[in-house]
Design brief:
There is one protein chain. With 389 residues, the protein is an alpha/beta fold. α2 crosses α7, α3 (79-87) runs parallel beside α4 (117-134) and α5 (185-195) packs across α6 (212-222). It has 2 domains: 12-163, VC0802-like; 185-226 and 255-380, Rossmann fold (3-Layer(aba) Sandwich). 30% of the residues lie in helices and 23% in strands. It has a 7-stranded mixed β-sheet with strand order 2-3-1-4-7-6-5. It has a 7-stranded mixed β-sheet with strand order 10-9-8-11-12-14-13. The chain has helices at 23-32, 51-60, 79-87, 117-134, 185-195, 212-222, 243-252, 271-281, 319-336, 349-355, and strands at residues 12-17, 39-41, 44-49, 66-75, 101-108, 147-154, 157-163, 202-205, 264-267, 291-293, 307-311, 339-346, 361-367, 370-380.
């Protein structure tokens, strides 16, 4: 497109980035939204669409970290080729000189000995373009830029995109209080979808922390977009931003519900975490329907109804403490949960072994930068499955 992003009917190459292990999960989400031509990449999926799709997916996608729109793609042989090709992009058609910007991305190429150098070259190309066109230059802001340019180089192939989200989409805007090791919101939403929860069976998190899994589950079950409370999107800083189109998409979104399709149950041994969960739940109309108790998981009463458990128990403690905790989790699942499914994310392999239940699903995932496993167990009254995790 050579930097011309103004056409709202023009077909765009849209890349939705996700965490490792959740590519198929993100594809399933897009299929549910009606997209059918989806290419799976490494930590991303790619579709074709318009700016209406970009706006819609920034609001509605629960499993995306960020959404990119390609503005140029070309091959290079030398470092200078990158500067020359980036200089041909009509940057002043994309954003105004008074907007701050930054250049980030990923570099997998032997052409560059310093992987930060490509970003400097593209930055220089942008600044030089504006100087030639306007006599002025935009300022660089690394931490919170209004416009974020993404540079991806593999071998000699370069793709330059605009990040239409800006700050990562796991910054939902609803979490006012968090614990010491909160689960990432995009990870929570992705785990819920990956688990196979039917959005009707009672959902429980016995290590609920600040309530992220329960909130993301309720948002999914009610159809309220996870990003409904988010105010900042980078696409609002582009020259082609269409306020009317954005208002139309936003106004169609569900924001208020008067009931939930099932029970949502949370507990945490920490009174502080219980208070933080309740504080975060106040942001939503459904918050008053979600039960949060200040109990350790093994004091949660027996359930006579099927229950679906998704939880992020503590890990990274001393090995003997961790093994004891996970053994208690296994015993509680056997004796207290008559029927249902339990899905657990953890980085503790010894912890999983201590649970003593045979998993029905096992997927390698990441919680932020932490290498984890996500395992699900089918639970039946009076039975404890073969003790292999």
């Amino acid at each position: 497109m050579n930097g011309n992003i103004s056409g709202f009917d023009e077909e765009l190459i849209i890349t939705l980035k996700c965490f490792f292990g959740f590519e198929e999960t993100l594809k399933e989400e897009l299929l549910e939204y009606g997209y059918d031509q989806i290419e799976i990449l490494n930590r991303a999926v790619q579709i074709r669409g318009t700016w209406k799709d970009v706006y819609y997916l920034n609001l509605h996608s629960r499993c995306s970290i960020s959404i990119l729109v390609e503005i140029a793609s070309f091959r290079i042989k030398t470092e200078n080729d990158l500067y020359q090709s980036a200089s041909k992009i009509k940057w002043s058609n994309i954003f105004d000189v008074n907007k701050t910007f930054a250049v980030k991305g990923a570099i997998y190429s032997d052409i560059f000995t310093n992987t930060h150098y490509p970003y400097l070259l593209v930055k220089d190309a942008i600044v030089d373009h504006f100087r030639d066109k306007t006599g002025d230059r935009p300022n660089i802001e690394i931490k919170r830029p209004q416009v974020l340019i993404d540079v991806y180089i593999r071998n000699n192939q370069v793709t330059i995109s605009v990040n239409t989200s800006g700050n990562p989409l796991f910054q939902r805007g609803y979490r006012n209080a968090a614990g010491e090791a909160p689960i990432n919101e995009v990870v929570a939403a992705s785990l819920i979808r990956m688990s196979g929860w039917d959005r009707k069976t009672n959902l429980m998190d016995p290590f609920c922390g600040s309530g992220t899994i329960l909130i993301e589950g309720a948002l999914l079950a009610t159809g309220i977009p996870s990003n409904i409370e988010r105010q900042h999107y980078a696409f609002k800083n582009f020259k082609n931003f269409d306020q009317n189109l954005w208002d139309e998409i936003y106004d169609k979104a569900i924001r208020i519900v008067r009931k939930l399709p099932c029970k949502f149950l949370g507990s945490d041994i920490s009174d502080e975490m219980v208070l933080k969960s309740r504080r975060n739940l106040r942001e939503f109309s459904f918050g008053r329907f979600i039960e949060i108790s200040g109990k350790p998981f093994n004091e949660v009463r027996k359930s006579d109804e099927p229950v679906f458990i998704i939880s992020n128990p503590p890990y990274g403690q001393r090995l003997e403490i961790e093994e004891e905790l996970y053994a208690q989790i296994g015993s509680w699942l056997k004796h207290e949960i008559k029927e249902g499914t339990a899905c657990i994310i953890s980085s503790s392999e010894e912890g999983f072994k201590s649970i003593g239940l045979k998993h029905s699903k096992k997927v390698k995932v990441y919680n932020g930068n932490l290498d984890c496993s996500f395992r699900c167990y089918e639970l039946f009254e009076g039975k404890r499955k073969d003790s292999l995790s």
